[in-house]
Structures are given as C-alpha cells and as structure tokens.
Amino acid sequence: MDVRPTPFRRFHAVRPSAIPFPLAVLVSLVVFLTPASGVPSAPPGTDKVVHVGVFVLLTVTGLLMVAGARSPRPAPDRRDASPTHRGRGPRRLLLLGLLCYAFVAEVLQGLLPLGRSADWADALANLAGIALGAGVFLLFGPRRPAGGDLAAAHPAEDGAGADRA
C-alpha cells in the first residue's frame, strides 16, 4: 500500500474540540458589538456578569481547542522541548490573544457608532472572566499523562496516532 504524503492528507476532518471556540468568538462579537438599541434592558451589574461569562466561555473553549491539538514532536537537539514544556506555547498565545481581545472589545464599543461606550470596569470583568476560565480549565480540563503527550493518551480521530511507538 502506498502511503506517500500528499497535500490533501493535511486536510482531514475537523477535530470536535476545535468547533466550540470559533462559535464562542462569534457569540462574543454579537454580544459586544450589538448596537445599544438591540441590547435588552437588565438590572444594574448584569453587564459585568455577561462580560465575565463570555470570557469564561472563550477561555475554556479556547484552551480545550489547544489541548485537543496534537503537538509536534520536538526536535532532538532542543533543550526546552521536554514533554513537560510541550503545549505551553499555544496556551500562552491563546491567553495573550484573549487579553488583547478583552481590551480591544471595549475600545471598539467606544469607537464604533453603536451607541455604546467603552468602560474600564467591563475590561476588568473581561480579565476576570479569563482568569476564572483558566481556573475552571485547570480544575476540570483534560489531564496530560505522565509523558506529557495528550495525543498519545487519546488516539487521534483520523487514525494518524496509531503508528506511534
């Protein structure tokens, strides 16, 4: 059987863990960029709860997506590529992106003609949501096996992980 790599082997089925995060991003865009006329009236403080909740959702789904991705095998000559360090880079990048988004969302609310205003308390609520989401993920998220390779503990959906020794 010929198993030469082809350009099309890279395009396989989407991992189920990769689906919720883009949906959460779309929900957040709708929530944060809805014009003031479309925002329902609510008791005081509800806005902060919504901000925290949206960023908890973004953080948990984003971290689940990153945890579900197979990390590449480290180069043998790299000293920092031990199994305990694998996967931290994507998580850090995701969290950095969410931190930026927490502030950009507020700035956009103030700059765009939505009839809404930027509020530093909302930005702090966004940051609290990121911290809470990261805590929820650490407490209840998938655990890495002793070797540190999550993909080895859970065989890939496309069967590519079956040939690992």
TrEMBL record:
<dbReference type="InterPro" id="IPR006976">
    <property type="entry name" value="VanZ-like"/>
</dbReference>
<keyword id="KW-0472">Membrane</keyword>
<keyword id="KW-1133">Transmembrane helix</keyword>
<dbReference type="Pfam" id="PF04892">
    <property type="entry name" value="VanZ"/>
</dbReference>
<feature type="domain" description="VanZ-like">
    <location>
        <begin position="73"/>
        <end position="140"/>
    </location>
</feature>
<protein>
    <submittedName>
        <fullName>VanZ like family protein</fullName>
    </submittedName>
</protein>
<keyword id="KW-0812">Transmembrane</keyword>
<feature type="transmembrane region" description="Helical">
    <location>
        <begin position="48"/>
        <end position="69"/>
    </location>
</feature>
<feature type="transmembrane region" description="Helical">
    <location>
        <begin position="93"/>
        <end position="111"/>
    </location>
</feature>
<feature type="transmembrane region" description="Helical">
    <location>
        <begin position="123"/>
        <end position="140"/>
    </location>
</feature>
